Amino acid sequence: MLQIDILTLFPDSMAAVLGESIIGNGIKKGYLSIDFHQIRDYTLSKQARVDDAPYGGGMGMLMQADPLYRAHKAVCKMRGKEHIHTIYLSAQGQVYNQKTARRLATLDNFILVCGHYEGIDQRFIDECVDEEISLGDFVLTGGEIPALAVADSVGRLLPGVLADESCFTDESHWSGLLEYPHFTRPEVWNGRAVPEVLLSGNHEKIRKWRRREALLATRAKRPDLWAKFTPTKEDVKLLEEE
Ligand SMILES: C[S@@+](CC[C@H](N)C(=O)[O-])C[C@H]1O[C@@H](n2cnc3c(N)ncnc32)[C@H](O)[C@@H]1O
Q: Does the structure show a pLDDT above 90 at 165?
């Protein structure tokens, strides 16, 4: 079972999101556990302060190192460990992708640290953080949304959380391709018909159609992924069937 511990100033709103649907069911069935820790509970300040103005001046406030450090230590102790792999969600981190999700899904536990305001005191990062992960090259107000994205994308890879492994091994970003398009009832909607092959019941034809559509979608939508992809002999043949 994977244990994820999240240090945040907004535990309730995060718990509400991850407690629902597929991840919520995965938690109920015991495939993973996600606990949220209110950083404010670990400050020694009587006013429950966790932030202060940055040295050297400048706009905004910074999260102080000490409440974060105390929260981090308490979680490690709670899990009976000296140290747990610790990730700071940061606009300066390595951009997150499925490869990182797969690596994190092999761990027994990890801690996600959500920054806020202008960020967090560098000394906490130097003391406790093993890696920084970014959701993309843009700036959010806090690390909560990226932490939710990491917990969700890792959680769904754990055995048992989804009905079958093929639920994610057939999906975009597993093997370097985007997924083929999907259709459901009705057969015709707004004058648009479902591709005939999908109604044929011929599994081999359907497999080939889906593979070709995945190749075409990747080539058209993500030339950067396509450039790194090595098509098989069958792929080349399928692409020639224009
Ligand atoms: C306003 S941001 C701080 C940005 C920081 N001053 C900088 O320029 O790099 C506040 C918090 O949001 C989170 N955050 C913002 N953008 C992010 C991103 N792209 N990926 C992951 N976390 C992000 C981080 O936890 C950060 O501490």
A: no
